[in-house]
Design goal:
Layout (H helix, E strand, L loop, with lengths): L3 H7 L1 H11 L5 H6 L5 E8 L3 E2 L3 H11 L4 E4 L6 E2 L4 E8 H32 L5 E3 L9 H10 L13 E3 L1 H7 L2 H11 L6 E5 L2 H10 L3 E5 L3 H11 L4 E5 L7 H5 L5 E3 L2 H4 L6 E8 L2
Parallel strand pairs: 6-11, 7-8, 8-9, 9-10, 10-11
Antiparallel strand pairs: 1-5, 1-12, 2-4, 3-5
Helix pairs in contact: 2-4, 4-5, 5-6, 7-8, 8-9, 9-10
Length: about 280
């Protein structure tokens, strides 16, 4: 996420909203001590081991406050970092550094935390046929950042939003009347290029989904034994995904089942931040 056009079109408005949240009228503390423009420099330091994600977003915050801001980065998104590492040096109007510090760090810490947690699980799946997916269980107005962080951490993105793909869940099935009817209606409505995914909770629903011709079948909150039977029933007739209370503690059991995908909401809703800090600020002119 470092193309300038992409940033302008997709993230600048969100970053500006975050800055406005933090500076509603003025940064009274900074304005009290800095009465004129001076160039400052500050170091971005890592305070714990992890995976970095979001450096372009971090830098963008300062660029929005000072178009002349510069960043010298010593790592790239996706790199593993260790406690004590110097990640980057930012040079900008010292007022921009002071006013943008918290907003910039909030994004970088959150995204790096997600990338770190994702990498932990992705490493466990390495060598298997199973791909790790995220979900739509994201922080409002943070989805573009959080899903990007999942990719940096070695995971894959499920649909980005409700316009992005068909996923018939329990309430859709209830509204339609049955699994078969829901799939039938989806096939009638959707363009032929769209795959149809349906969520099933038991083997009876699975059989209905297979008969109706679902492209992807999600096993929702099934026991391990039931999922093993479900994978055997599906064979090569559809792709398979398991979901529901997926944690890293369960990954070793789930990967042995042989599903094509494991979707994990915890990647975005439960990942702790990666502890980072801006330190050693100095005036350079």
């Amino acid at each position: 996420m470092n193309n300038e056009t992409t940033l302008k079109l997709n993230v600048d408005d969100i970053l500006l909203q975050a800055l406005r949240e933090d500076v509603s009228s003025e940064d009274i503390t900074t304005n009290a001590i800095m009465h004129e423009s001076k160039t400052g420099q500050v170091q971005l330091l890592c305070k714990q081991d992890g995976v970095i994600a979001g450096l372009a977003i971090f830098y963008r915050v300062f660029l929005l406050l000072d178009p002349l801001a510069k960043m010298q980065a010593y790592v790239q998104d996706g790199n593993r970092v260790k406690k004590g590492d110097l990640i980057a040096v930012i040079t900008a109007d010292i007022r921009a550094l002071l006013s943008g510090e918290r907003t910039a760090l909030n994004y970088l810490q959150r995204m790096s935390g997600i990338a770190t947690y994702t990498r932990t699980i992705a490493d466990m799946l390495e060598g298997s046929r199973t791909k790790l997916l995220d979900t739509r269980k994201t922080t409002p107005n943070m989805r573009i950042f959080e899903k990007y962080a999942v990719k940096v951490g070695g995971g894959y993105n499920h649909r980005f939003n409700l316009s992005d793909g068909i996923l018939l869940k329990d309430n859709h099935i209830a509204a339609a009347g049955s699994v078969k009817k829901a799939i039938e209606l989806a096939k009638e409505y959707a363009p032929f290029v769209r795959k149809i995914e349906v969520e099933v909770e038991n083997l009876e629903m699975l059989e209905d989904a297979l008969e109706a011709g679902a492209d992807i079948i999600m096993f929702d909150n099934m026991s391990t034994d039931m999922m093993k039977k479900a994978v055997e029933m599906v064979g090569e007739r559809a792709e398979t995904e398991c979901s529901g209370n997926v944690t890293k503690e369960r990954i070793s059991d789930l990967m042995e089942i042989g599903v094509d995908y494991i979707s994990c909401g915890a990647l975005t809703h439960s990942a702790p931040i990666l502890d980072l800090s801006l330190r050693n600020l100095k005036i350079v002119n």
